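ENTRY TYPE: paired fold submission
RECORD: A
CONTENT: sequence, then structure tokens
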Amino acid sequence: MMLEVIYQDEHVVAIHKPAGLLVHRSLIDKRETVFAMQMLRDQINQHVFPVHRLDRPTSGVLLFALSSDVARMLTEQLTLKHVSKTYYAIVRGYSPEQGQIDYALKEKLDKIADKKARQDKAPQDALTDFQTLQSFELPFPVGRYQSARYSLIKLMPKTGRKHQLRRHMAHIRHPIVGDTTHGDGKQNQFVRLQYNFEGMALTCFEMALMHPVEKNPLILRSHFDKRMADLLYSWGMTPSQLHQSIHQEETR
């Protein structure tokens, strides 16, 4: 499998990470042998330096540096919150039209990978802005509900806590479809069996930052996740409606 490169120059390279692919080798899954970092290195025949991460079930824009110095500069931008990210998700229920989730999150530690980390850290500030783009109601009873309701939402995290979007959406009772850790098992099973949807409905569509060397604005944009698009189409959304929803600010 070839990774889709969405931007490359002599300093950075960005790809569309498919859902289900780990960014790099991890103690969380010792048996996995395929990773985005190694695949990209072999594909472009150059060492790459990851500067951020996407959860395994999340698809979308993944940025690498091509030198340790550039990696340091990009990490500094991320630390100073000078990088903005735009995600899209499909969630359970009719989510509010828009809002901001201000809910501190206690750091989630993995029993294996984080066994040496401090266990008593206080919750960290976490902010997520969101906007509902379209809602859907399907004539199928799921769990205690007589119909199945979902929303397509735009998510703009202002902080970068582990599993922030997944945990924030679960906190306001609109968990992301397909999230097996924080989501709704009955809804996940329904979309899997009824619509053959596998994985989690969360994708990083865009990253906006300052180029670390050239110092000009750099906007990295991926294509919309095909799995999510196919699910929305099966609910009656047309490709033009989806395109208009995710590009609405450009057309105003």
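RECORD: B
CONTENT: sequence, then structure tokens
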Amino acid sequence: MAEDQKPLLIKRYASRRLYNTETSDYVTLEDIAGFIRSGREVQIVDLKTGDDLTRQYLLQIIAEHESRGENVLPVTVLNDLVRSYMVPGGGMMPQFLQSSFEMLRESQSKMMENMNAMNPIAKIPGFEAMKAQQEAFLKAMTGGLSGSWSGPEPETSGKEGGKGGEDLDAIKHQLAELQERLSKLK
């Protein structure tokens, strides 16, 4: 199993503190929710007994979000979940939920692929270069504050006409070329 596919191991100490074994620091339930939102699987184990506590903590994360008004699960679904616990053997609910979420993930992935394939702007020659330049420009303008920009790190020099000015000139040139191409398409 690849390193990024292995679950992140969180150990619970007797003090009930949660310890991230990869970064060697303590984490909160909100930190764990963030790991999961970013696509990382987690496994939470009791340090002393070795018991797997993952399910218990995931349910606690959901309960805390629901209690703060971040209602994701309708009451009817919660009622159905409670009913499924009352059926000997758990009924069909666990398999149904797992299959439903797998289908949802696949549908979202296919939808994103289709949207990217149907985007006519992405087919314009030089679009990727323009996009990269735009991201670099925005990153330079925001001082690199946002972690979502994927452009190159801006170089900072004491001169006003440094790399930032060159990037701006390149962006202006590319925009002029793109505008010229678009006017020819009309």
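NOTES ON RECORD B: The first strand starts at residue 8 and ends at 12. The longest helix spans residues 93-118.
STATUS: closed
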